[in-house]
């Protein structure tokens, strides 16, 4: 039976807590596509820097630590993974220490240049195979994949985003308080939007999708219609990626 497969790049941008990771993974799975969480890449190099004991105010040292990190990203949406020097760090990069430091690390221009280059390489590798790729982050449509066939900017109210983030943390066994999480969400919004290099902003040709009143299924339905309308689907016998 023929299944819809993605041809091209879908770029999902937006602030923390909008549900990017969940819908990006499910969208990629639906279309037999690869999946890339660029935020996890910044979190991973932040963890590498913290483990090395680098002072975060020393931009050059942070950049060296980030560039030397042995980072491996799994792009299978069914089993995404992040490895540092061969060690799975998917849980650790979501901890409080990394969450507090990641915006500062990701704001350093040398760090962003190094990771954007790697993100572009991963996208090109995925595009060399059937299925395309769904990429999520904060500068995908503006910097990483400006020629993406579909760019979507996900938004939601800060309260809803805090509730989602808090629920995710609790489900993962991490202590969480909605008020504290909301303060952190707003702090990261300010840092990510105000950084000099690749600030968080919506691409001029992106479609804004407010997920405040939508569940995951509702967001996916909107995304499916957008993907179809852009002519990014072909129907083929699906093969294992």
Automatic annotation (TrEMBL):
GO terms for biological process: pyrimidine nucleotide metabolic process. Residues 10-228 form the Cytidylate kinase domain. Its EC number is 2.7.4.25. Residues 163-204 are annotated as: Disordered. Pfam families: Cytidylate_kin. Transmembrane segments: none annotated. It is found in: Cytoplasm. It catalyses: CMP + ATP = CDP + ADP; dCMP + ATP = dCDP + ADP. One of its GO terms (cellular component) is cytoplasm. Residues 172-193 have a biased composition (Basic and acidic residues). It is an enzyme of class 2 (transferase). Keywords: ATP-binding, Cytoplasm, Kinase, Nucleotide-binding, Transferase. GO terms for molecular function: ATP binding; dCMP kinase activity. Belongs to the cytidylate kinase family. Type 1 subfamily. This is Cytidylate kinase. It comes from Halosaccharopolyspora lacisalsi. The lineage of its organism: Bacteria, Bacillati, Actinomycetota, Actinomycetes, Pseudonocardiales.
């Amino acid at each position: 039976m023929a299944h819809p497969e993605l041809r091209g790049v879908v770029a999902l941008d937006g602030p923390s807590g909008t549900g990017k990771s969940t819908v990006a993974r499910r969208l990629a799975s639906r279309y037999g596509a690869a999946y890339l969480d660029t935020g996890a890449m910044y979190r991973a190099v932040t963890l590498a820097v913290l483990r090395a004991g680098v002072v975060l105010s020393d931009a050059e040292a942070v950049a060296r630590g980030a560039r030397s990190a042995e980072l491996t990203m799994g792009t299978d949406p069914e089993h995404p993974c992040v490895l540092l020097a061969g060690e799975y760090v998917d849980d650790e990069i979501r901890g409080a220490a990394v969450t507090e430091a990641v915006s500062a690390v990701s704001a350093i221009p040398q760090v962003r240049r190094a990771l954007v280059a790697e993100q572009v390489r991963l996208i090109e590798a995925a595009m060399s195979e059937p299925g395309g790729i769904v990429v999520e982050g904060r500068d995908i449509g503006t910097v990483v994949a400006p020629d993406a066939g579909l760019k979507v900017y996900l938004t939601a109210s800060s309260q809803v985003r805090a509730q989602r983030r808090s629920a995710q943390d609790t489900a993962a066994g991490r202590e969480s308080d909605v008020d504290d999480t909301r303060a952190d969400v707003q702090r990261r919004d300010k840092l990510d939007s105000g950084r000099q290099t690749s600030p968080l902003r919506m691409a001029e040709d992106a479609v804004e999708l407010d997920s405040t009143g939508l569940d995951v299924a509702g967001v996916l339905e909107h995304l499916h219609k957008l993907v179809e309308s852009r002519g990014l689907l072909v129907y083929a016998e699906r093969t294992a990626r």
